Amino acid sequence: MNWQEVCSNPNLKNLPFKIELNEYGQIVMSPMKVLHSLLQGEIERLLLRYATGGKVFPECAIFTPKGTKVADVVWVSDARLQIIKHEAECSIAPEICIEVLSDSNTEREMVAKKKLYFGQGAQEFWLCDQQGSMRFFNADNELAHSQMLPDFPVRVDV
Known about the structure:
The chain has helices at 3-8, 34-50, 78-84, 107-119, and strands at residues 17-21, 27-31, 54-62, 69-77, 96-100, 124-128, 134-137, 142-143. It is α+β, with helices and mostly antiparallel strands.
């Protein structure tokens, strides 16, 4: 199965799960709790406050060599948005890709997603744990704070 087939399948439209594809075209579903959505929404709100010259949005499907991955929140520049906005899945990753950890996520999974997003052109990867603590990464290292948005808080309160 490819991402376009997932998007057009009426049986998959309103499931209460985050859907991704693995490298074999199989659907992977992860349930989300209210806290996950609250953190996601607060990150979006803060991004709208601190980021300019682009767009913020949730649930961004990104093509990777290991299947379609869906970042919880992204920030994309206006220039990159012109390339991806009509695609079913982003052919290049937004500049900032953010994952909010849930009970079903593993450290191994997040390390793999981080590598895949950077391989598709992301400039930063952010990780938010269930207590709202933020971690920031570039392709080489963990950072004390975002280099792209240095005023973004290291903790998100909901």
